[in-house]
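Re: that backbone. Tokens:
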């Protein structure tokens, strides 16, 4: 395709005042300790403002110093901020909020809720907080992490979403009424991300509760999207969940599609699922072939590959971080630096940026304090240690404080050109933006654990290891401990081992009985066998059809393969064999 991008430098935003910790004339990197404290102060300014002015509503309105419900009426900001409290070291407030949520949050309400947002923010936030409860000093109940009040809340919320998956295709509706299920007149058109962003939370929930329904519906939805891709390997961004027909055929890595790709990679790492990773790598080839130009990613027609929108969306800034998770560091850094130039131009990322023109797109000039570029910086800094990534963190802190800080929190930037503000502070500001900033500047945080420390936990199913690191962030930045998925269920292989022991026991008992009878009669009774086969041959054939057993001690978690250990450093090297 004879299309090449020419990106002008553009007008750089006015230089922010030089603070202590910012690079000086010698080009020294930002001081992590200084910015760590700045980020912590940002969090408490926003968090305290929410508690004082907006709780129990979902979100804070920082310009009018009050609150409003946005995604359902769950005290959403409190759920979203809970694991951030622990990452910042505030165990006492974590413990208090756990009690508040148990007493105040009710999912049995007549509210139309986004299936996608409820999953990533509420189910994900509660699961993460549940798994971190013991580390936060909460007195957990017997059987934890296989039981607990936050786990029961997460399960209750997830069950409210299950009616959305009852479609002919298995792909969910976008909205569900928490009391009545899917409304009769509900639109069947759902975005791709709204279909493919469940495997992390739902597989975790199935593993902890023992109920496979959650992981099952998430996997079906993933597979239906995979089967719906075009002949050139691309997916659109909206599909009819009743017919499986694409309604919006623009293909890219941004809004409406983004977290579908993210969850193929993170689901593959979390579940050690080679099929999910193979699916992503096939998509990655098509994305490179048809949407990448000069390390930018455009929107193209999903069937033809022709450019439909030569724009960069701020939601696409997660992509370099995702590339780092599969070990594609060089490409990730090049794309990250492209996105960073946009930040430098405006002091934030506009929702849409016209790449050939080098400027914002009309009515898409805002920046709601999104985390995606900071998220990528955190991942890439863990992988490379490149000080440029700390500079992005510094710029983010300075820009957000200078432009969006108000008396009652931090306000969405309505227009990056003139810095007009909007009366909203999204819950993801405390769940993601502040969290990724803090982790960027805090290299010794427990989230970055390399496996050198861990906790041994006794569950009803034996001993398992938690807190060793390798946390998988859901798309709302709620960390999930992958080892927890092995704590609360007997593996199929272990079930076979138990059955073998039982069979061996009864075989010995039966043989002893037969020997005794043989001395008194012509021989023991034999069960009927199939034509031309003996009973022992039938047993051998059935045994051969079982899954190949892995030698796993019954009272310990299976050791993670080498590839997943490398994920602790921000990347995974795939076994090409």
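Recovered sequence:
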């Amino acid at each position: 395709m004879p299309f090449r991008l020419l990106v002008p430098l553009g007008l750089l935003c006015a230089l922010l005042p030089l603070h202590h910790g910012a690079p000086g004339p010698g080009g020294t990197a930002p001081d992590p300790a200084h910015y760590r404290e700045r980020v912590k102060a940002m969090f408490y300014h926003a968090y305290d403002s929410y508690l004082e002015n907006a709780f129990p509503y979902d979100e804070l309105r920082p310009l009018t110093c009050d609150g409003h419900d946005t995604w359902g009426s769950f005290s959403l900001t409190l759920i979203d901020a809970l694991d951030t409290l622990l990452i910042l070291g505030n165990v006492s407030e974590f413990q208090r909020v756990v009690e508040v949520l148990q007493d105040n949050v009710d999912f049995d309400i007549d509210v139309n809720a986004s299936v996608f947002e409820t999953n990533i923010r509420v189910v994900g936030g509660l699961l993460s907080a549940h798994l971190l409860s013991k580390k936060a000093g909460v007195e957990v109940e017997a059987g934890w992490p296989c039981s607990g009040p936050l786990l029961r809340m997460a399960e209750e919320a997830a069950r409210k979403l299950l009616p959305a998956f009852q479609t002919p295709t298995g792909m969910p509706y976008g909205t569900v009424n928490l009391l009545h299920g899917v409304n009769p007149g509900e639109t069947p058109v759902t975005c791709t991300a709204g279909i493919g962003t469940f495997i992390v939370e739902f597989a975790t929930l199935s593993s902890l509760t023992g109920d496979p329904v959650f992981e099952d519906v998430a996997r079906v939805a993933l597979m239906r999207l995979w089967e719906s891709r075009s002949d050139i390997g691309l997916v659109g961004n909206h599909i009819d969940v009743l017919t499986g027909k694409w309604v919006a055929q623009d293909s890219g890595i941004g809004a409406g599609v983004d977290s579908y790709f993210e969850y193929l990679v993170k689901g593959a790492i979390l579940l050690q699922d080679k099929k999910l990773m193979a699916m992503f790598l096939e998509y990655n080839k098509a994305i490179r072939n048809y949407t990448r130009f000069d390390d930018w990613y455009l929107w193209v027609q999903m069937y033809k590959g022709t450019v439909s929108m030569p724009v960069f969306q701020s939601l696409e800034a997660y992509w370099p971080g995702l590339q780092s998770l599969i070990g594609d560091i060089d490409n990730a850094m090049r794309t990250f630096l492209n996105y960073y130039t946009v930040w430098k131009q405006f002091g934030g990322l506009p929702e849409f940026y016209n790449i050939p023109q080098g400027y914002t797109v009309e009515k898409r000039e805002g920046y709601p304090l999104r985390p995606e570029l900071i998220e990528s910086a955190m991942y890439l800094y863990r992988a490379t240690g490149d000080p440029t990534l700390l500079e992005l963190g510094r710029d983010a802190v300075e820009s957000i404080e200078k432009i969006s800080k108000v008396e009652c929190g931090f306000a969405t930037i309505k227009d990056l050109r003139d810095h007009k503000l909007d009366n909203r502070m999204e819950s993801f500001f405390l769940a993601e933006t502040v969290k990724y900033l803090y982790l960027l500047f805090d290299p010794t945080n427990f989230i970055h654990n390399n496996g050198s420390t861990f906790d041994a936990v006794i569950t009803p199913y034996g001993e398992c290891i938690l807190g060793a690191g390798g946390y998988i962030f859901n798309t709302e930045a709620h960390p999930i401990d992958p080892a927890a998925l092995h704590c609360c269920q007997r593996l199929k292989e272990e079930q076979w081992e138990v059955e073998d022991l039982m069979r061996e026991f009864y075989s010995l008992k039966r043989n002893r009985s037969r020997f005794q009878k043989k001395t008194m009669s012509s021989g023991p009774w034999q069960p009927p066998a199939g034509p031309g086969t003996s009973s022992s041959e039938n047993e051998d054939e059935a045994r051969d059809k079982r899954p190949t057993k892995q030698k796993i001690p019954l009272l310990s978690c299976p050791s993670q393969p080498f590839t997943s250990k490398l994920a602790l450093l921000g990347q995974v090297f795939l076994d090409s064999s």
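The CA atoms of residues 10 and 106 lie 50 Å apart. Confidence is low (pLDDT under 50) at residues 1-26, 513-577.
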